C-alpha cells in the first residue's frame, strides 16, 4: 500500500501494527519508506486520523538482464524495453533469472518499486558437503547458486 502524509511526499507502507492502549484510543504504528530518498521512518496515527491513499498502477514485465546497477526489462505485449534501477528490487534482485516475470508499480508514469514472484526456482552450482555424524539438530549447508548468490 502507498500513502501520502505530507506535502506530496509518497511513502510505501512496509509494516503496520494496530495497538490498543487500555482506556486510551487505539493507534496504528506504521513503518514507511520515502520513495524519493529511500529513508525509512516510523509514524503513529490515531484511528480517527485521515490519510491519503495513493493508487499505483501495477504492470508485468519480463526480466532480460542486469548491467551494473541497472536492470533491463521488456513489456511482453509491445516488446518495448525499459531500463530501471536495481534498487527497485531491493534484496530480491539476487534472485533475478532470464525470462522471469516481474512486477513494477508505477505512479505518474514513474517506477516506484519492483518485485519478483513469491516462489523462485534456482539452480545450485556448488554445494559443500555436510558434516558426518549424528546430530540432534538439522545441519544447514551453504550453497552457491547459478546467479552467484550464496545461500
UniProtKB/TrEMBL annotation:
<keyword id="KW-0251">Elongation factor</keyword>
<dbReference type="InterPro" id="IPR014722">
    <property type="entry name" value="Rib_uL2_dom2"/>
</dbReference>
<feature type="domain" description="Translation elongation factor P/YeiP central">
    <location>
        <begin position="58"/>
        <end position="112"/>
    </location>
</feature>
<keyword id="KW-0648">Protein biosynthesis</keyword>
<dbReference type="InterPro" id="IPR001059">
    <property type="entry name" value="Transl_elong_P/YeiP_cen"/>
</dbReference>
<dbReference type="Pfam" id="PF08207">
    <property type="entry name" value="EFP_N"/>
</dbReference>
<protein>
    <submittedName>
        <fullName>Translation elongation factor P/YeiP</fullName>
    </submittedName>
</protein>
<dbReference type="GO" id="GO:0003746">
    <property type="term" value="F:translation elongation factor activity"/>
</dbReference>
<comment type="similarity">
    <text>Belongs to the elongation factor P family.</text>
</comment>
<dbReference type="InterPro" id="IPR013185">
    <property type="entry name" value="Transl_elong_KOW-like"/>
</dbReference>
<dbReference type="InterPro" id="IPR012340">
    <property type="entry name" value="NA-bd_OB-fold"/>
</dbReference>
<dbReference type="Pfam" id="PF01132">
    <property type="entry name" value="EFP"/>
</dbReference>
<dbReference type="GO" id="GO:0005737">
    <property type="term" value="C:cytoplasm"/>
</dbReference>
<dbReference type="InterPro" id="IPR020599">
    <property type="entry name" value="Transl_elong_fac_P/YeiP"/>
</dbReference>
<dbReference type="InterPro" id="IPR008991">
    <property type="entry name" value="Translation_prot_SH3-like_sf"/>
</dbReference>
Amino acid at each position: 500500500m502507498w500513502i501520502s502524509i505530507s506535502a506530496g511526499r509518497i511513502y510505501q507502507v512496509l509494516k503496520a501494527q494496530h495497538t490498543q492502549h487500555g482506556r486510551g484510543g487505539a493507534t496504528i504504528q506504521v513503518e514507511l519508506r520515502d520513495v524519493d530518498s529511500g529513508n525509512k521512518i516510523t509514524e503513529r496515527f490515531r484511528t480517527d486520523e485521515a490519510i491519503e491513499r495513493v493508487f499505483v498502477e501495477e504492470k508485468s514485465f519480463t526480466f532480460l538482464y542486469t548491467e551494473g546497477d541497472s536492470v533491463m526489462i521488456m513489456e511482453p505485449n509491445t516488446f518495448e524495453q525499459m531500463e530501471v534501477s536495481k534498487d527497485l528490487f531491493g534484496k530480491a534482485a539476487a534472485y533475478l533469472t532470464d525470462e522471469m516475470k516481474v512486477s513494477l508499480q508505477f505512479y505518474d508514469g514513474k517506477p516506484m518499486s519492483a518485485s519478483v514472484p513469491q516462489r523462485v526456482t534456482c539452480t545450485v552450482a556448488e554445494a559443500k558437503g555436510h558434516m558426518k555424524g549424528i546430530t540432534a539438530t538439522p545441519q544447514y549447508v551453504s550453497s552457491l547458486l547459478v546467479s552467484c548468490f550464496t545461500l
